[in-house]
Write a structure and sequence with these properties.
The chain is mostly helical. The chain folds into 2 domains: 13-129, no CATH class; 148-216. It has 9 helices and 4 strands; from the N terminus they run ββββααααααααα. A two-stranded parallel ribbon has the order 1-4. The protein has a two-stranded antiparallel sheet with strand order 2-3. A hairpin with a 5-residue loop joins strand 2 (28-31) and strand 3 (37-41).
Length: 223
């Protein structure tokens, strides 16, 4: 014989960061075209801006501590400090970094934002162990690596173009090598370098090569 069936009641809630015109109103109901109901989903909208920080605490749900800064009286240091302390005490370090981002949305004074940064720097050891922090860090690291590769590739192309210009100049107009080398050293426009390479390659004499340099790089200095 089966034993008694135990039901653990669950409270379905949605938490909003700010008011929105399209905010759903419970219950959510779905019907067939003939009007027959096929789904009824009851839930509760939690709107932090309608509560005080203490009222959110009284809900007894550690996950809601994340939204303390969004309450009526939440945009201040002592409320944010309470959020940090209580999240750690509730062993909710995994959402502590999200709390930092929520707090950053409501603080407006530069001094308060600086305090927030310094406060969370003190928590770096705790934050670095959370999946949220690691995910954000890994994505930032990957982005940095990609930007580094792109920058490195561009620097390589610039270096190769400068070297090609010097090689052609040395082979055809050796007396211009020093002048051209110094003037292309700080050019960072790849198109300008490639244009100069072509002009020097087709120049028939030193005068034409020199004119090509002055035309392509207007601020050329005659060292």
């Amino acid at each position: 014989m089966l034993g008694p069936i135990c039901y653990n009641p669950l409270r379905n809630t949605t938490t909003r960061l700010k008011p929105h015109e399209s905010m759903p109103i419970p219950p959510l109901i779905r019907t067939f075209p003939n009007g027959e109901e096929i789904l009824r989903f009851n839930f509760r909208n939690i709107k932090p801006w309608e509560y005080t920080a203490e009222e959110i605490r009284q809900e007894g749900l550690p996950g809601l501590l994340l939204f303390l800064p969004l309450t009526k009286d939440g945009a201040k240091r002592d409320t944010i400090e309470a959020m940090v302390t209580e999240l750690i005490a509730a062993n909710k370090q995994d959402i502590l970094y999200l709390g930092y981002m929520v707090a950053a949305l409501v603080l407006e004074k530069e001094a308060d934002l600086q305090w927030l940064k310094e406060r969370f720097v003190m928590l770096e050891d705790i934050l670095s162990e959370t999946w949220v922090y690691q995910d954000v860090f890994q994505k930032g690291e990957a982005k940095g690596e990609q930007e580094g590769k792109e920058k490195g590739q561009r620097e390589g192309e610039l270096l190769a173009s400068r070297q090609a210009i010097i090689t052609v100049t040395q082979a055809r107009f050796v007396e211009l090598v020093s002048l051209i080398s110094k003037n292309i050293a700080n050019v960072t426009d790849l198109g300008v370098l490639q244009n100069l390479l072509i002009k020097i390659s087709v120049s028939r004499n030193v005068q034409e090569a020199t004119q090509a340099l002055f035309e392509t790089i207007p601020n050329t200095e005659n060292y």
